[in-house]
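Hi L.,

As promised, Endolytic murein transglycosylase:
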Amino acid sequence: MNVANTPKGPSPRDGHRKATPTRRAVAPAHRQAPQARCASHASRGVHSPRPYAPSSYSSATHSRSAARRRPQQQRRSKTPVIAAIVSLLAIAVIAYFFVVPAVKSMFAPQQEQTVAAGQDVSITIPEGASGDDIASILSKNHVIENPKDYYAAVAKEGAEMSLKPGDYTLKTGMDAVDVVRQLVAGPNSGAVLTIQEGLTLEQTAERVEAVYGISKDEFLAQARVSKYADDYPFLEGAYNDSLEGYLYPKTYTFTGAPSADDIIRKLLDQFVSETASLNLDKGANGLSAQQIVTMASLIERETAVDSERPTIASVIYNRLDADMPLQIDAAIVYARGGGNQAVTYSDLEIDSPYNVYKNYGLTPGPICSPSISSIKAALNPDKTDYLYYVASAAGDGTHKFSSDYEQFEKDSQEYSESLSS
């Protein structure tokens, strides 16, 4: 979060926007550690006295005889050593070419068969199938390659008792959560439409076009509040007559060839179902229901870690209470029309009501479709005094939170250095 551009003097930078990396100091070259020297003591042979020479031999004769015997003694003493070396070499060769490959093959991971993602595959989940049975079926058909991903998705969705048997048409290489949601929805014979958390209305229209062939422009033309407010009163007065934020992210299937209206109504119905127990129409913390959805959309784009969402919400509330600009980069990205590029200083000058560097308060409407966890976080924020946050140097998607600017600067520097290390 960076408020350097506001008239209040030096101010914090956006907690989400990455700090500009600084050139890291060149670390001193690694010095070679002195090697330990180990001097082995030379063994000294024990010399026995010269053999006694019989008196019948002259000393010259004895010397010539000794000279003739010495080479033969040396050859006899080297022969066992050479034989041992040859044997060891032979054993080493055999081990290298036969034993080592065999051992490697025993412990090396098996090469998995790769299957291109996106291919249609029909599977049947039998009545009474166990979790292991379903995981095996999905893995063998390459719908989910790793059964561990399936188990994790089932746990995340709380779907242990909700999976339905039957015939399914799925695709290879699907996201495990999408598969579990489809198994919860029940058997299908049509295409699967997955609207992920955090997608904008425009991105949702692109997904609909890819799955059902309804053009993006046709879908966007239909996705107007004025066409649905009579049946969904909570939409009345939504900013710019847009359904942004209200087409609930989930996996859907439709029989036959659905229209844009069919799809929009099903997604709106899902939004109603998901939020029915939250009393969203009453708002919270002085905000209206539509402002809660707007805040939830900002939270959704600021962190992918569910446990952090209430803390992110607390920072937003604290900055609103302190009359500080939110300075959330995700809103700037929405204002400029999307893209994956980093936010630049020129982006911060965009003339848009979504520019929360220039404008105070929340954005005028949602910037994406938030998950239920983000909506709950907006309704029930943590109680903190945090005003800043920055991505953690651990690189695990979490953030470091702080209540004073100096600590934020330190956290930002630490994150910046982690990028260049």
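Strands lie at 120-125, 166-171, 192-194, 251-253, 388-391, 399-402.

Thanks again for sending the construct details.

K.
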